[in-house]
Amino acid sequence: MNYFSLNKLVTTLGVRRFLEFRTMKTKTIINAEGKDVIKKKTYENRITLISPDNSLSITDLKNAQNISLRRDLKLVKIQDIDSKTRRPVYKLMTNSEYHAEELSKRKEKQMARQNASIKGEKLLTLSSRIGEHDLMTGIKKMMKLVEKQYEVKVVIAGEDAEAAIKSEKIYQTIENQVRNMSKIVQKRVKGNSLRFQLLPVRGSSTEGTGNTDSNQNDNNNGPL
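Now predict its structure.
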């Protein structure tokens, strides 16, 4: 074998190795026309990861899971797809942060369900000098509104020196009558008036509410 033949052989082997190496790296595919098309490298399960210190990083889901196990953290998905990056967003949380987040979500869902069931608001005003019969009539109206899924705002207006004591007694009477079908919230004193709200309870009914009777024909009577 002469010098030129040896040189040609070395060149041929070098070109072949280069082509094999290129094929391994690019992983070309052939299209319908018989042409080589370079297959684009894909990144499966790429996510945006938020660390406990709120720093951002881009990684894959498996690596994020490994990090959470090593650091004894919870890996929580907080967004399915980010509108800008088109990646899901996960966050690493401590156990206390995770439980606080779960509690917050439960409260939000509970409030959303409650707000969805409330038809509207009704305001009822009572005098601190109201008589017992008129008070019971007013309570019946409150209960009817609550049963119809209305939020009832009640104002007990003070009209004399003993207004605070009388208003508290009226409040206690109302509370005893409606406790089985409504929830009383935001009780407060403003000026000479005592104010609070009645919120419907799911599945509430006027049955078993104490001193209510079966006479429901006085809807438009009383002080309210």
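The first strand starts at residue 28 and ends at 30.
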